[in-house]
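Troubleshooting log. The previous structure file for this entry was overwritten by mistake, so regenerating from the original sequence record. Sequence copied from the archived sheet and checked twice against the printout by T.R.
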Amino acid sequence: MLLKKPEFIIPPSPGNPFENCKLDRDDCAKYLTKIISSLDEPFVMAVSSKWGGGKTTFMKMWQQKLAQENYISFYFNAWKNDYVTDPLLSFIVEMQKSIKAENWVHSDLKDEAARQVKTITNVGFHFVKRALITSAKIGTVNALDIDKEIEKYSADLAGEAAEKFFALVERQSNEQEKFETELRKLVDLANNNNDLKSQVIIFVDELDRCRPDFAVKLLERIKHFFGVNGIVFVLGIDKDQLCESIKGFYGSGLNAELYLKRFIDLEYRLPISDSFNLISSWFTLYDYGSYFDERKNVGNSKNDMISTFCAVSKALELTPRDQEQGFTYLTLIFRITPIVEDLHEMYLVLLILLFLNKHDIYKKYVLGNLDAMELENEIFRKSGVSQYIGSIDGKMLSAYLKNGMLEVNELGKKINDLDRYLIDNRSNSQSSMYQDIRLEFTVCHRMFDSKINNSVGNYIDSKINEASRFAI
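Regenerated output below.
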């Protein structure tokens, strides 16, 4: 069994970049491509999801797909470059690296685009240098608010000093205009070649993980330096985290969502896809088949575990990264548990995912402060996956929740009560109630046969706490 999932591999061109995607996000890319292909104006789109939701992987796959369809596109990881004072500097350098790395069919167009990007880079360097000089003279200058800055500082400047300052600001403004002119030439290159699509797509990822000042300045640079028809930005963000970064820069009193609307024209929330294909593939990838082969006393099948993992993931709105952490805990517990011990796998999956993602509810349950019905209502019925509880797997899990915290003596009494009901009501053996009681009887008997001194729930809790000692 693997302890760590291998890194996701995007097939290189000319292969389908979405070939290994188990979340059906190829459809998302097709949908978004239709939108951006109709744009002529400057445009900023945000692709948002929680941290760990697969934004980076999606954006890289989508960018590769766009490159295959002959879009000029760039990818910029903002977090890896936030050590630079001015984001524009690292941004244009990465543009130059990206265009060289693209696998274009038409090499002559690639060379022409690379030359134009180099020109943009040179103009950008000149602008950043001017900005640093001006910044040194007046403290900090926002190129968008030059008029305000001039008004603010002109009172302190007189005669020759004022003329030098205004000349410096004017040169900076001219450099900005040159920068935009060269960007237009890049768009014109796309527009004037039938082999290229007319939009230039720039992906900016991990913006929410940057230093607050870097994130804010990069947003401002995008808005005011790249406002050229045909240039489309795609920002990969965790919106809540980015709002916190903005508040960290401007203060907690700022309406960060309203501030973001100044920069983002359209937000697309990356959907939480049905994760059955993903989780099924991970069960194979982690080689959990060997676990079932080794243990002859396993009462739950692999499919029981998969259906439970999927239902709980949906109920708790888990991201792929949350699910991956659950797999790591499962693997650790499988490895540290002797083969002869029964882990009651469905119950184990639920408790692991609660421990990692709803720890307050988990603690209430294992301490006896939350009964099974309250837990089911809290997790399943409120989240729109109540149909799972009505399935065979769901009823088995419900039986575990209802009886899993019973001590062995209490469990023995419960088995006797259930057995007596089944004997007394054989005439109704086809009724749904009788079938549910028989299923509960089976689950309770399995827990009793585990020969655990206290309760199965406490036993699993001890295993989870052992796994939690590892920093994951």
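The CA atoms of residues 121 and 232 lie 18 Å apart. Archived copy saved in two places this time.
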